[in-house]
Amino acid sequence: MKGHFSIIIPLFLVLTHPMAWAQDNGILNKEKALWLESGNSALMETSGKRTDNTAGLSYGFITGEHHLFQEPQSSHNVRFNTAGYATIGKIKLWGQFSYDNITDSGTRYNTLVYAPHDERFIYNVADTTLSDWKKQSYDMEFKMSAPLSQRLSGGLHIKYRDRIAAKQQDPRSESTVYEAEVSPSIACIIGSSHFIGFNVLYSRLLERSAPTLSNGSILQNVFVLKGLGNYTEDVVGSGGLYTMYYQGNSYGGALQYGFDGSVELLVDMGYRISLTELRQDATHPRDMGLSSVNDCFINARLLIEREKSVHKLSFNSLYKHTKGTEYSTKQINGVGWEVVSKATMSEYTTADASLSYDYYLTEGDSYLWNAHSNIRYISKDDSYVTPHSWFKYSGVSAEAGASRQFFFKRRSIISGFMIRGYKSINGVYVYNGPRAESRPVKEWYPHDMEIRSSDHIALGAMIEYHKEVNANTTIGLKTRIDYLRSHVGDRLLSSFGVQLIF
Question: pTM for the complete prediction?
Answer without folding.
Answer: 0.92
